[in-house]
Amino acid sequence: MHVVIVGCGVIGVTAAWFLARAGVSVTIVERRDGPALETSFANAGMLTPSLSSPWNAPGVWLTVLKYLGRKEAALLVRAAAFPGLLAWGCRFLRDSSSARHEINMRKNLRLCNYSIEIMNEISSCISLDFDSSLAGIIEVCRDESAMRRGRERSRFLGADEVPTEELSPGAVVEREPALDPIAGELAGGFYFRADQVGDAHKFSCVLARRAEENGAVFRFGDTVEGLLSARGRVRGVRLLGGEEIQADRVVAAAGSYTSALVRPTGIRVPVCPAKGYSLTAPMPEGLRPLGHAVLDDRYKAGVVPLGGRIRVGGTVEFTGFNQDLSPERVANLRRLLAAVLPRHADQIAPGDAQPWCGLRPASPDGVPIIGPTPVEGLHLATGHGHLGWSMAAGTGKALAQHLSGAKPDLPLSDYALARFT
Ligand SMILES: Cc1cc2nc3c(=O)[nH]c(=O)nc-3n(C[C@H](O)[C@H](O)[C@H](O)COP(=O)(O)OP(=O)(O)OC[C@H]3O[C@@H](n4cnc5c(N)ncnc54)[C@H](O)[C@@H]3O)c2cc1C
Question: How much is the average pLDDT of 74-81?
């Protein structure tokens, strides 16, 4: 059997590695010149079962209305994006009922927790250096209402699934001394000890090399222009320039571009781009280095230590496929860094912080879309939204098991495209 994977982001490369290890012939086609150069490049780096809740929590429409047109808002919908968002947005709102939200959160949590297990399995199989940390993640809260929301979330997620420790302001600083300068501003926080941190781009580069050693073929710098179909099934891909690659199965793992790629087959994949920003700088010398990733409830973004670097990442903007770096959105992240680590922020010159943006492939119910489609031979691995790095290892393994005819450890039915039809 020969499998072609379109897209070498963190999702595509993980599936390629598992397939190659299982002895399946696999070709991965990526338009960029290396692995993970789009959305998987400079994400916030957190592997977070604790953030399994989809964005569309009950009452989300009030949040959208509140932030409408506010350029500094953590969640921003640009007017120009409205027409393209209509059908997706209706489904997004429909799935924000308490019952649907809980069902969808459980699906995400299962895949996130499974992925942490598989991540540990990968790390025990091959030596991986991707600036990872198993220290856990701390969320800081600045008022009692944020603490209340945190407690509600902990109950919602369940202590067995997401071990959580509530922290007093003093305990926050005891666990993360770099937060000492803001101790007086905190009402407390939460510690998620099972969450991890790592650089998705570095991870993808190592895994691509290892997959290649196991026989996977990487075609970097090649764009898939269309899918080859015959007698009702997909039989390969056609590259820009005309070359054709035959395959028994094609996996569309093209992130936010997956919908356009598969549309000619008649399949509608409801994934839309949700832009986010990050800012990466060297960890300032002479100050206590940050030891844990820190989430700030107020700013809806995280400050994350990655090796000798510090990365601030988050916020959501619906603005179509636009990938311009908006100065206001970058300024938001600088404000967040200053609010969490004021002394570190003071020492980072604007020119030393590298801004970046990427398009999260977001499904309307906040759950990824993985597995077969009604078109024989065509499979999907997209829609991971804000959790693609957290879910990559589990997605890759379960999909590879499914494609190679084994029973996936994690049934893929919860992630099927069929739920939208
Ligand atoms: C600011 C920000 C912070 C984030 N933080 C986190 C976090 O802390 N934790 C977490 O779990 N997730 C996080 N995410 C989400 C995560 O980064 C994404 O869910 C994940 O990277 C998606 O991976 P992917 O492989 O599906 O897509 P991508 O990484 O976008 O990969 C798709 C690939 O397909 C290629 N491609 C597209 N079309 C074609 C074509 N026609 N031919 C050939 N190649 C093609 C693209 O070039 C691209 O390389 C964050 C995202 C952002 C933007």
Answer: 78
Q: What is the DSSP letter of 99?
A: H
The protein residue whose alpha carbon is closest to atom 33 in ligand 1 is 7
* Residue 56: CA count within 13 A, CB half-sphere: 24
- Strands (E) located in 85-181: 137-141, 164-167
**Identity of residue 175:** R
Residue 193 predicted with pLDDT over 90: yes
Q: How far is the CA of 387 from the centre of ligand 1 (A)?
A: 10
pTM of the model: 0.97
Domain boundaries, the chain: 2-41+201-270+365-420, 61-95+132-196+272-362
Render pLDDT for 237-266 as a digit per residue (tens, 0 to 9): 999 999 999 999 999 999 999 999 999 999
Domain 61-95+132-196+272-362 homologous superfamily, CATH: D-Amino Acid Oxidase, subunit A, domain 2 (3.30.9.10)
* Atom nearest to 302 CA in ligand 1: 8
CA 68/CA 77 separation, integer angstroms: 6
Same fold across 2-41+201-270+365-420 and 61-95+132-196+272-362: no
Best residue among 389, 390, 399 to mutate for probing ligand 1, ranked by most atoms within 8 Å of CB? 389
- CATH class, domain 2-41+201-270+365-420, is alpha beta
Q: How far is the CA of 380 from the centre of ligand 1 (A)?
A: 14
